[in-house]
Amino acid sequence: MNNKKVTFQNLGRIRYKEAWDLQEKMFDSVVDAKNNHIESKPQYLLFCEHEPVYTLGKSGNAQNLLIAEHVCKSKNIDYYPIDRGGDITFHGPGQLVAYPIIDMEEFHVGVKSYIQKLEDVVIQTLQFYGIIGEKDEKAMGVWIDAQHPAKARKICAIGVRTSRFVTMHGLALNVNTDLSYFNYINPCGFTDRAVTSMQKELGREVDFQEVSDRMKQAFMDVFGMNYSHQEK
Known about the structure:
The protein is of the alpha/beta class. Helix content is 28%, strand content 32%. The protein is built from 5 helices and 12 strands. Strands 1, 2, 6, 7, 8, 9, 10, 11 and 12 form a 9-stranded mixed beta sheet that branches. α3 crosses α5 (208-223). The longest helix has 20 residues, at 16-35. It is globular.
């Protein structure tokens, strides 16, 4: 167990661009500290919900947005091509988004094992609710019935950016998410796989704060994080 100090901050509901700008500042502060060999460099974990937004990863195909950008605007959905890996996804109310901004070297993980640990965080969180989350070697994220193509459905998307082994962006778990927003995209570039939420799987609305608390604990368990202080 690493027991690394991490500053945890719950941003609440926030527009995507505002959270992205904050991530960039924190990311730069971690990279600067690393470049200057500062021993007690900062590490961060942000939780939030976003107002409706589609984000397209740097290797994504813009054609996976199935409606024109002006239609997005008319529906009050933001749209941003961004600098993470992966293709297109949706963020919105009822979805728990986690952004770790950490130095992977401090946690003794490489990029592949870091993503696997993010998946483990979600799988542990879902386990409490009796939902069996699974990994798919061919597709990042957390799935249900991953080994059965006709039934496979994604419950959590993952997309990260790393530079000098410092991370940003992260994961998005559908808790009580309005899944109709996914009808306007090919989620993560897939045309043959469904998207689901905890609410859909359980047949009831889920206590969002409880899920946040469970995920926060799961980050502690999986990564060995020790939260130095919290802000709401």
